[in-house]
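Long-time lurker. I teach an intro course on protein structure, and each term I like to show students one example going from raw sequence to a predicted 3D structure in token notation. This year I'd like something fresh instead of my usual example. Would anyone be willing to generate the tokens for the chain below so I can use it in lecture? Attribution to the forum is fine with me.
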Amino acid sequence: MLGRRQRGSRAGGGPGPPGLAARLNLPRQTVHRVLSQLEKLKLVIRDPSRERYSVGPQLSRLAFGTLRSLNQSAPIRVILQDLVDEIGETCNLAMFGGDEIIYIDRIETDWSLKAELKPGSRVPLHCTSSGKLFLSQMPRVKRRRMLESLSYKRYTENTITDIDLLESQIERIAATKVGTNNEEFQAGVIGVAVPVMDAKGRMLASIALQAPVARLSIGRALEFVPSLQRAAADMAITFEAAGS
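-- Reply from a regular --
Happy to contribute to a lecture. Here you go:
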């Protein structure tokens, strides 16, 4: 409910108290009181400039725990493993975690040369394929506020630290729905990510591949986008079945 995105102009952000009160058929005072309590618990975050609310860090952690629990079942793990077997490179399932990306699960390739990150690892938004992909799916106003709040640590020579340059790249990602990381987080490692979407077109998670550039160029990695998209479609069906 709180994470619903606005369509059309992509302006706006999370819902505000008047909209929630109308949708829930509750008095505005009640909605304000509940939102205030949720904010204290860090389950939601209030944007004071627009009096709108979005998912908070604690709710992100709860969602992460839920998905991790779901991921112990065979279907989700099998989808990732089949993808790794097909591509021959490390693949992961990730979700948005406030101002970071959280790896829900990750299956490593058998190659000895690889970039190892464990499930539960948190990585930045501005220099990872999944991070930029999640940013691309935000309404423009909310995205700009998020970009202005980030800490632009330079991890490699390729890390983009200019906000306008990054936003320009994110606009292109919004059009293609394919996120890329060209040695921006770890030197010598590239990444490509696609979204896992629900039936209403909302991004639930991302599926990405990572590989050493010595073995797989960014251009060659993009050739695997159809495989990533098929896995993402299968993952969406699995999520829907788990939530029904």
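Some talking points for your students: Confidence is low (pLDDT under 50) at residues 1-13. The two ends are 16 Å apart (CA to CA).
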